[in-house]
Amino acid sequence: MYRSRLGGGIGDAALRYVSSVDDDAEIMAYDIIGSQAHVLMLNRCGIIKKSDAKKILAALRGIKSPGRSGAEDVHELVESLVIKKAGMESGGRMHTARSRNDQVALDMRMKVRDDINTVCGRILDVAEALVSVAGGHQKTVMPLYTHMQQAQAGLFSHYLLSHVDALLRDVERLAGTYGRVNQSPLGAGPVGGTGIPINRKMVAQLLGFDGLVENSIDATSARDFAAEYVSMTSIMMTNLSRIAEDLVVWSTAEFGFVELADEFASPSSIMPQKKNPDILELTRGKTARILGDLVAVLAASKGLATGYGRDLQQAKQAVWSASRISAGALEVLRPLLLTIKVDEKRMRAAAESSNLVALDISDRLVGEGIPFRVTHQIAGALARIAHESKRPVSGLGLADAKKAVRGTKVDAQLVLDVSSTATVSSSLKERKSAGSSGYAEQKRMIAGRAKKIHDYRTELASRENRIKAALEDLQRQAGRI
Ligand code: ARG
To answer: What's the gap in Å between 155 CA and the centre of ligand 1?
Structure first.
């Protein structure tokens, strides 16, 4: 349709190579809505007649899913369908003062703002599931790890809440991204704007945008909004991937801390006994893919001279992929978490088996006025003696305590009093610092996170409602003309 400057039609292979029609299926609806707003504005600004606008809007309304076409992208496709339906005299006016360059940026921004809201909603669903599981495990003792070695005794609720906090930061980050995405580029034209007296703000308002991407060069050339979105979702997926990795490890026979419900596990084609955590492995695997998507968006932009270049067409696939991966991973994780079986006994046994109270003993001795470096040395010596004699620290005697205090001025009896009464439970009772594994902190954190989730849901609903109200109003106005 656009080839007046070019001699003949495009060859089949060339068309297949340049066409984004398949990828554009994701933005066709946005393209149509964007065109409705544009046409309303053209009429209100006296650029096209009411009768033409009417015909174009009727044609736009009638567009269903199109069959095969020779169009290079959805913008050409929609325009050609409108011209076919409304005739060249009216339909040929739809693209006045608009370019595919501002149009594609508009469609992408409309899709990304919706995707942000979808992803945020699902993150909040997962966070809520984590909080609810945490609620039932405020007394479930487990080892906490550093270097994948047992480090301190902790609580399963504390572990779960740590991921809630990371996910809530993802929601906050995406909300920030939303503000930068929800700006209208339409009316920027190909790159430098237009002499036709359009009203960009009117279009932005009709489409529920918060403002304009003002500079027309920036509006058409930049894809940092897409890179930001894929970046935020990539970070979110790395957070999910860490949860997935923990659950994969903890569901091994060696750990046996958790067991997935059958409906979230996969069998083996040959080994009848197998129960594999494929969903969790795919979350790790798909995280690898989204990181690739991020690189794809950034790389498509980095060497591009300012002004639209067709390279940018490739960024769309990466954005769509990021949305599919994120929404899918979140959707399946929520019920997986809610149905997970936790073996509290095994968790506790693991936490009690390896002298995780060493740091707590050291801390108690600090409370007796002894310098921490000295208490660290004594508790370390106790742990070594316990390990070598295959006894728990709490089972050591005075002779052991005497060995442990050697070279210090500390009284062995005091050390024995402390070490013989230190248990995982006592240490969790004593753990008081803000945000710690202490019993008391769990209740406070659970209530705090539940409130945050509620507040973020309210904020999300208001973003969604603003878009919905604007687009419903647009339909009313388009229908009335
Ligand atoms: N299909 C293109 C894309 O997705 C639309 C913009 C094409 N503009 C152009 N001047 N070739 O990015």
So the answer is: 53
